[in-house]
Structure formats: C-alpha cells, structure tokens
C-alpha cells in the first residue's frame, strides 16, 4: 500500500507517487519559507508589469497560454492520471473544463472590471461617479489534489485575468500538475506572473505569511481554519473553498433513470473524491423503491480497479481509506444496511461503490464528508422533509434537485452556494456562474463575474463636475442649504407608508422566538 506522505525532518525534496502502483512519478523541491518569500518577491515584480497591461493585452497572453495548454492536453491528462490515479477520460474532462474557465476569465475580465460610470444621485448631482476593479497584487493559491487542474484554475485564471500575479502551492500529492502549469505559462508569456512553490503543509503555511495580498485556499474545512488563522496575523484576506456534504433530492415526478444516473455519477466519479460530489440522496416515498432499484441496477456494473478503461480509479490519499471505512462501519453499527458494497468494499487502494439505506441522520455517513464512492439513500414523505434534511448540515456547497414541475422552487429553498436541476454538478462547468459555498464549505467565490471581482478591490472615484447648488461638505455651509437638504430628502425619501403591525399571536411570539434561538 502507498504510504502516507510525511515530511522527513530537514528533507529538501519529496516524491510524488502513483496511487495505483506506489511508483515514484517525480521528485520535487520542498520550498522553504525563505524560498516562498523569494517567489512572492519575484511575483510582485512580475505583477507590476502584468497589471500595467491593458485588458486586451492580458487577454492575448492568456489566450496564448490557453493554446499551449490545449495543444498539450494529452500530456497534461497523463500527468494528472499518474499523480491522482484518475482515469485518463476523467483527467481530460477536468482539464477541458479548466481550459474553458481560462478562456472565459480572459475574455470577460475587461467587461466586468473596467471603469464604469454610476449614478451620483440627486443629492450629489454635481459629481461624476465611477467605479473600477483593480488587481490586489500577488495572490497565493493553495490547492487540493482531487481536481489538481480544475480547482486551482478556478482561482488562478480569474486572479490572472484580473491583473494579479499568482504564487501557487499545489497539494503534495499533485505537485507535477502545478509545475507543469507554471512552466507552460512561462513559455507562453515569458514573465514569471504564475509561479509554483512545492512542499508540504509548511510550504502552504509559509505562503500565507509571505506578504501576499490575498490567499485563495481550496481544501478541507480543518485546513481552511488554519489558513485563515495564519492570514489573520497580517490581515491578509482569504477565499475558502472547503468541503461539502451535498444532497440530491428526487421528487415524485422526476425522471428516475436520469436521477439514478446522476446520483451514481455524482457519488462515484473521481472515486467519490469530489467536493461537490453527491453523498446523500432523499427520495419521495412514492418513488423510493423504484429509484433504488434503478440505482442498484446501474451501480452493479461499476468497478474500481487498475484495468485499462476502468471508470473508477484508486483513492488518491491513502489515509482517506480509514475515513471511508469508519463512515460505513458507523452507519452499519447504527442500524443502516449496505444494499451494495459495505465495509469489505474498502480495499488497500480501491473502494467499490457502496450504497447505504436506513442510515440514521446523525451518523457520520450523513453528517461528515466521506470523500469516497459511497451514498446514503433515504425515503422522505414529501419534498418539505427532503429540503429540511438537505439543509440540516453545517456544510452548504452544492446540491441537486430532480423534479419536473418544482425544480426551481425546490432549488431556491436549499441552503447551498450552488444547485443543479435535473443534472449534476453542471454549475461547475458554466464559467459565468459563481462557485463556492456557505457555512463549513467556506466563503468567497471563484468563477464568473464574482470570481473576477474576488481578486480585486473596488476603486470608487467621485469627480466634481460643477460647483454644488447645495454646498454641504464645507464649514461655510448655510442654514438655508441645510433646510433645502431636509426638503430634498423629505421629497425623495419621505413617502413610505408605515406597514400596519400584524396582530400578536395568542401563543406569544416572544416565547416562540426564544425557543428557536
Ligand atoms: P487539505 O486541506 O488537506 O489540503 C489542501 C491544501 O492545503 C494542500 O495544498 C495542503 O498541502 C495545504 N496545507 C496543508 N496544511 C496547510 C497549512 N497549515 N497552511 C497552508 N496550507 C496547508 O485538503 P486536500 O488536499 O485533502 O483536499 C480535499 C479537500 O478539499 C476536501 O475536503 C474537499 O471537499 C475539498 N475541496 C473543496 C473544493 C471546493 O471548491 N469547495 C474543491 C476541491 C476540493 P499538502 O497537500 O502538502 O498537505
């Protein structure tokens, strides 16, 4: 079995391993704190050049890089396959989606961030008001191993397009993909605007303290808290893209074959190692048996192994095997049943698809991120209960609704950053949609207009066009000006009618509020 990567005391290099075979893929430097600071200093120099370019010129450079990455897609996918074990097809899909995001960020940055006029309002009618979004400087990007290209690209592409330089710390499991990105960028653009530092958690921690202007972290909630604590020392802002416990709900009128297909792919693709992967399913009681039968029918053909053409790869991070095993065991100990797989499905490198039913809602498999090809399926009396259970989690990343008539209504009531209706994880592949969560899934957004703005600060400018009729911001302000201001404000804002108070409920609203607190 592949051993867990631990940092040997004083090691200056480390090896990335193929999780399928345990073979060494490559050796990489462990960058020290001083080396991380040097990388940030180089990035700051590069940022001065990069941020001075026009949006059009940056778009040209990013398009050149995108072309190189696209033409070498097969090479990139092969490296991703070797470092994570994911099937070649999945690696190609991941890289293709990352490239699409890069293209969107490059072509939309100007439109979203350039200076634009806004109304100054009647009170300040003598002013011309503009807002524009300026790059922050150097962004530290810390990425996970499960989607080593797509996930960091969600920060890197948008940060670069907004005019920042980036120092990227990839996971110790996937350092090669990070180096590949930085190398191809340098080849395409000729300036070290994107750099990579490699190593273990210490290197990531050093990046947080190296004077970057923002940290974009993607990884577990626990590490996200450590990153935030380190960034707090220097008031460095952070974006946290953390874990999830996403649910899929199936209404009585849903297309059950499509819902079963989505649940299975959402749970098992990438061997279940997806932050927005489906981990829980809530099905209307009228279609529960039918849905479960179809799900099992589809799932029985799926196997995780090292055969060429296999659709499921290994578990990339070996210590995750214990987490997956413990969640299944806990579910079974508390009265759950494995209708497919079970504890014995957890092997030395691979985990076979596991479907659990009758699992209590307070068990680990329903509450904690499992990050394996497992799924709990529960019967609910109606969609009210489905939403209630879906929302009873401290996470809030993605979610899925299968319903013909009520998709939009149900989706809008789920407390999560993103929802797919009659599809699964589709929101991640739409570059114009913001990606991110709430609660323990983190905060801030990558992708879309919000993702571009995340790596900027708004610059507001008010320019006086002519002398004000009402001179207000001066010690020469007159009583007359004050009276005129009061009249103007009354005219503009004084017309709202008071909303009559609802009669008090006899049970006492105060007590009820107290109880729900
Ligand atoms: P980790 O939290 O273990 O690591 C994430 C990154 O943080 C790695 O590069 C890691 O380096 C680095 N790191 C570790 N310790 C520190 C530290 N003290 N300071 C700074 N950086 C540190 O997550 P995983 O790599 O295991 O990724 C899986 C997790 O990521 C899952 O919870 C998953 O849900 C989440 N995820 C969230 C996504 C989202 O967009 N919301 C997308 C994809 C994944 P090293 O690897 O060297 O330890």
UniProtKB/TrEMBL annotation:
<feature type="region of interest" description="Disordered">
    <location>
        <begin position="1"/>
        <end position="23"/>
    </location>
</feature>
<keyword id="KW-0560">Oxidoreductase</keyword>
<protein>
    <recommendedName>
        <fullName>Aldehyde dehydrogenase</fullName>
    </recommendedName>
</protein>
<dbReference type="InterPro" id="IPR015590">
    <property type="entry name" value="Aldehyde_DH_dom"/>
</dbReference>
<dbReference type="InterPro" id="IPR016163">
    <property type="entry name" value="Ald_DH_C"/>
</dbReference>
<dbReference type="InterPro" id="IPR012394">
    <property type="entry name" value="Aldehyde_DH_NAD(P)"/>
</dbReference>
<feature type="active site">
    <location>
        <position position="241"/>
    </location>
</feature>
<dbReference type="Pfam" id="PF00171">
    <property type="entry name" value="Aldedh"/>
</dbReference>
<dbReference type="GO" id="GO:0016620">
    <property type="term" value="F:oxidoreductase activity, acting on the aldehyde or oxo group of donors, NAD or NADP as acceptor"/>
</dbReference>
<dbReference type="InterPro" id="IPR029510">
    <property type="entry name" value="Ald_DH_CS_GLU"/>
</dbReference>
<comment type="similarity">
    <text>Belongs to the aldehyde dehydrogenase family.</text>
</comment>
<feature type="active site">
    <location>
        <position position="275"/>
    </location>
</feature>
<feature type="region of interest" description="Disordered">
    <location>
        <begin position="497"/>
        <end position="517"/>
    </location>
</feature>
<feature type="domain" description="Aldehyde dehydrogenase">
    <location>
        <begin position="12"/>
        <end position="461"/>
    </location>
</feature>
<dbReference type="GO" id="GO:0006081">
    <property type="term" value="P:aldehyde metabolic process"/>
</dbReference>
<dbReference type="InterPro" id="IPR016162">
    <property type="entry name" value="Ald_DH_N"/>
</dbReference>
<dbReference type="InterPro" id="IPR016161">
    <property type="entry name" value="Ald_DH/histidinol_DH"/>
</dbReference>
């Amino acid at each position: 079995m592949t051993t867990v990567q631990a940092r040997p005391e004083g090691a200056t290099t480390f090896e990335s391993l193929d999780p399928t075979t345990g073979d060494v893929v490559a050796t990489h430097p462990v960058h020290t704190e001083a080396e991380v600071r040097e990388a940030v200093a180089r990035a700051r120099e590069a940022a001065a050049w990069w941020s001075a370019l026009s949006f059009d010129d940056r778009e040209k450079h990013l398009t050149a890089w995108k072309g190189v990455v696209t033409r070498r897609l097969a090479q990139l996918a092969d490296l991703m396959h070797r470092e994570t074990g994911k099937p070649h097809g999945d690696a190609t899909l991941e890289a293709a989606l990352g490239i699409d995001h890069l293209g969107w960020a490059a072509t939309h940055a100007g439109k979203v961030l350039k200076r634009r006029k806004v109304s100054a309002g009647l009170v300040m009618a003598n002013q011309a008001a503009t807002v524009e979004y300026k790059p922050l400087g150097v962004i530290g990007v810390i990425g996970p191993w499960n989607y080593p290209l797509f996930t960091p690209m969600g920060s890197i592409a948008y940060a670069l397009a907004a005019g920042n330089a980036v120092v990227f710390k990839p996971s110790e499991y996937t350092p090669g993909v990070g180096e590949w990105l930085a190398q191809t960028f340098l080849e395409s653009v000729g300036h070290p605007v994107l750099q990579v530092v490699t190593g273990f958690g210490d290197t990531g921690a050093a990046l947080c303290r190296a004077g970057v202007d923002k940290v974009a972290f993607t990884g577990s909630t626990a590490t996200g808290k450590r990153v935030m604590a380190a960034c707090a020392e220097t008031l460095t802002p952070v974006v946290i893209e953390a874990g999830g416990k996403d649910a899929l709900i199936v209404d009585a009128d849903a297309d059950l074959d499509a819902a079963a297909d989505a649940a299975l792919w959402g749970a098992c693709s990438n061997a279940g190692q997806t932050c927005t992967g489906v981990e829980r399913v809530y099905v209307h009681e009228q279609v529960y048996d039918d849905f479960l039968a179809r799900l099992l029918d589809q799932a029985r053909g799926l196997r995780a192994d090292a055969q060429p053409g296999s659709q499921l790869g290994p578990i990339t991070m070996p210590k995750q095997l214990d987490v997956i095993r413990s969640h299944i065991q806990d579910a079974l100990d508390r009265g759950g049943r494995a209708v497919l797989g079970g504890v014995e499905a957890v092997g030395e490198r691979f985990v076979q698809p596991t479907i659990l039913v009758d699992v209590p809602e307070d068990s680990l498999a329903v509450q904690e991120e499992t990050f394996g090809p497992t799924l709990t399926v529960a019967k609910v009396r109606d969609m009210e209960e489905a939403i209630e259970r879906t929302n009873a989690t401290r996470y809030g990343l993605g979610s899925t609704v299968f319903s013909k008539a009520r998709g939009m209504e149900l989706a809008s009531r789920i407390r999560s950053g993103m929802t797919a209706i009659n599809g699964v994880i589709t929101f991640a592949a739409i570059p114009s949609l913001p990606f991110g969560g709430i609660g323990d899934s983190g905060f801030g957004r990558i992708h879309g207009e919000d993702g571009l703005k995340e790596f900027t600060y708004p610059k507001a400018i008010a320019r006086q066009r002519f002398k004000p009729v009402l001179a207000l911001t001066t010690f020469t302000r007159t009583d007359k000006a004050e009276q005129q201001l009061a009249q103007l404000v009354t005219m503009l804002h004084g017309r709202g009618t008071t909303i009559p108070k609802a009669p008090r409920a006899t049970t006492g609203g105060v007590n009820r509020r107290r109880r729900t607190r």
